[in-house]
Design goal:
10% strand, two-stranded antiparallel sheet, globular, 6-stranded parallel beta sheet, 296 residues
Length: 296
């Protein structure tokens, strides 16, 4: 009952299918709901299973500007992943490319035009969910103005509020189209009214994503073990900060030990009254609803 989801890596599809079956059997034996099994299968530079779809990169899909093709690529990807037992794709990237976007982000974007990112990115997300897999819009509220990737070190976004609002268009479209999960970035956005990194900011998670965009699905953090977080705070403190901001799921993509420490710390904080138990119940309800009906 201590594990609700996993992120998987590895290029051997057959081995992955066998491992996932073992994990789900363990969950069932413990009388728990099925696990959320996640992977980064974006296409292009980030494609954990290189032999599987999508067969076009986000940039190629954006250049063609063909919604039907993007939806078909998403559906093929969803069907393929579902066949392996994977039920969440941590894609699509809905960041809008800009002149100084970090290369490791820019190469994963659909376009420098927010309207194209919206059309093609949302179509890919819809295809994923039609293929039976949860789509994840990332990295909210956008990493297009990031000159440094948070996978490498901490970064603040030097962009005006108006610029950032423009880059919200794809996320707004994804929410309206029924995307089931949103990943919040760990960059800082000072012009959005918060000194905290997005994943730790009630103004961004609760105010911007929940209240303004009306998203009522599951919110997950970007990797809390990436240098963009760990260079300034511990994974345990990051967990508390993210929960206080209104995040539902915490992603630890590098070690089970960090997630275990965070879990134990959060349990103690709830028992002591330092964290609101009702908020955990709301997150639990969102997550179990997603597990019961992954694609809506």
């Amino acid at each position: 009952g201590r594990v609700g989801g996993v992120i998987v890596f590895g290029e051997d599809a057959a081995q992955l299918r066998a491992d996932i079956t073992t994990l789900q059997q363990a969950a069932s034996a413990g009388d728990n709901p099925p696990l959320l099994v996640m992977i980064d299968q974006e296409g292009g530079d980030v494609k954990r299973l290189p032999q599987g779809p999508p067969n076009a990169s986000p940039a190629q899909l954006g250049e063609s500007d063909d919604e039907d093709e993007s939806r078909a690529q998403g559906e093929a990807t969803g069907s393929y992943l579902r066949g392996l037992g994977i039920n969440v794709d941590l894609a699509p990237v809905l960041d809008v490319a800009h002149q100084n976007t970090a290369s490791t982000i820019r190469s994963r974007t659909f376009s420098s035009d927010p309207a194209v990112v919206t059309r093609i990115g949302v179509a890919f997300a819809q295809g994923l969910q039609e293929g039976g897999v949860v789509a994840t819009a990332k990295h909210f509220p956008g990493l297009g103005f990031a000159t440094v990737n948070t996978d490498d070190r901490p970064t603040d976004i030097a962009a005006t509020s108006d610029q950032l609002q423009t880059d919200l268009e794809p996320f707004r479209g994804a929410v309206e189209a029924g995307v089931r999960m949103v990943m919040v970035s760990t960059a800082g956005y000072p012009t959005l009214g918060s000194r905290k990194q997005a994943a730790f900011s009630p103004a961004i998670v609760g105010g911007l994503l929940r209240d303004q965009l009306g998203f009522d699905g599951v919110v997950i953090t970007d990797d809390l073990e990436a240098p963009g977080v760990t260079d300034t705070t511990s994974p345990v403190v990051a967990a508390t900060s993210a929960i206080r901001a209104g995040v539902d799921m915490l992603l630890y993509g590098r070690s089970a030990a960090a997630s275990d420490r965070a879990f134990s710390s959060l349990v103690n904080e709830v028992k002591s009254g330092d964290l609101d138990r009702s908020q955990f119940q709301q997150s639990y309800d969102r997550i179990t609803s997603l597990k019961a009906s992954p694609t809506g």
